Amino acid sequence: MASCTQKSTFLSPILVFLALLLLLSSSVADLSFNFYAGSCPGAEFIVRNTVRSASTTDPSILGKLLRLIFHDCFVQGCDASVLIRGNGTERSDPGNASLGGFTVIESAKNVLEIFCPGIVSCADILVLAARDAVEALGGPVVAVPTGRRDGTVSLAENVRPNIIDTDFTVDKMITVFSSKGLSVQDLVVLSGAHTIGAAHCNTFNSRFKRDPNGNFELIDASLDNNYAQTLMNKCSSSMDPTTTVVNNDPETSSTFDNQYYRNLQAHKGLFQTDSALMEDERTRKIVEILANDEEIFFERWSESFVKMSVMGVRVGEEGEIRRSCSFVN
């Protein structure tokens, strides 16, 4: 694991990288570092403190917060639309049924509304919380620009066409990422989010089949046999595959590190989309680089995370600053 001193060296490349990003889009150009320095100087501290506090009682919340930003940003941009409650919203779609971390975002918002009413967007809180979750688990310290505004539209019909299903091929994943302005490298790097968190059995049990006695049999030859047996034992003992969970990373599930890529090399990728990264030359080469050098992974993660966090942002007069993250004003 890289030391704290090593991690801090990633900030300079990120600042250079973002300086280039800011030239690409007028929307992105309206974001800035320390956006709340004058209007709500304690904003980032409040979010970080809320995340840390929540994780002391429920360590799994950190992985949930990181997953939440993916499901928000990939559907019509990073506008906190996934947080909105109601029939027919993104949050109501079955593809988002297993999401968590909503209460942490709302808790941070509640505190911010006391000290800085109507100032800090839920979209910024969501990005900062995901950033802080990674840092809390030993990952890199990432400087992210803020100034996003909240979206006012949230439709369930927008979810499925924009999120990655666990049985996607590399070509399908590249198509989705490319449509968001993200590269093949971003795909492999951001897949590294699976170094933390957990998944329900029904998200990967298509890699097995049940025999007449109700036991699982392996049908996916890309999985390590011993690892597959562990998964089958865990999932076959449950009557409900939507409630039993398995760690995404079987080795270091509570640490944000590059073990995920070493798992892929050992054929221990939990999802088909994980294993697929080793089966395609375009992605396998990147996996090998990241598996061999954690510092490179942290640097690339910082870059790709920021790129994702500025996708489709609302700024200026667009959207609004919600009073509650669960509802539009």
TrEMBL record:
Which residues are listed for Ca(2+) 1 binding in this entry? D72, V75, G77, D79, S81, E90
* Residues reported to bind heme b: H194
Entry's SUPFAM superfamilies? Answer: Heme-dependent peroxidases (SSF48113)
Source organism, top-level taxon: Eukaryota
Q: Which GO terms describe its molecular function?
A: heme binding; lactoperoxidase activity; metal ion binding
Q: What is its main location?
A: secreted
Active site residues of this protein? H71 (proton acceptor)
Give the catalysed reaction(s), semicolon-separated.
2 a phenolic donor + H2O2 = 2 a phenolic radical donor + 2 H2O
Q: What is its EC number?
A: 1.11.1.7
Sequence ranges assigned to domain Plant heme peroxidase family profile in this UniProt record: 30-329
Q: How is the cofactor bound?
A: Binds 1 heme b (iron(II)-protoporphyrin IX) group per subunit. Binds 2 calcium ions per subunit.
List the InterPro entries: Haem_peroxidase (IPR002016), Haem_peroxidase_sf (IPR010255), Peroxidase_pln (IPR000823), Peroxidases_heam-ligand_BS (IPR019793), Secretory_peroxidase (IPR033905)
Keywords attached to this entry: Calcium, Disulfide bond, Heme, Hydrogen peroxide, Iron, Metal-binding, Oxidoreductase, Peroxidase, Secreted, Signal
Q: Where does Ca(2+) 2 bind?
A: T195, D249, T252, D257
Query: Disulfide bond among the record's keywords?
Result: yes
One Gene Ontology term, aspect cellular component: extracellular region
- Primary enzyme class: oxidoreductase
Disulfide bonds, paired cysteine numbers: C40-C116, C73-C78, C122-C325, C201-C235
The family note in this entry says:
Belongs to the peroxidase family. Classical plant (class III) peroxidase subfamily.
> What is the protein named?
Peroxidase
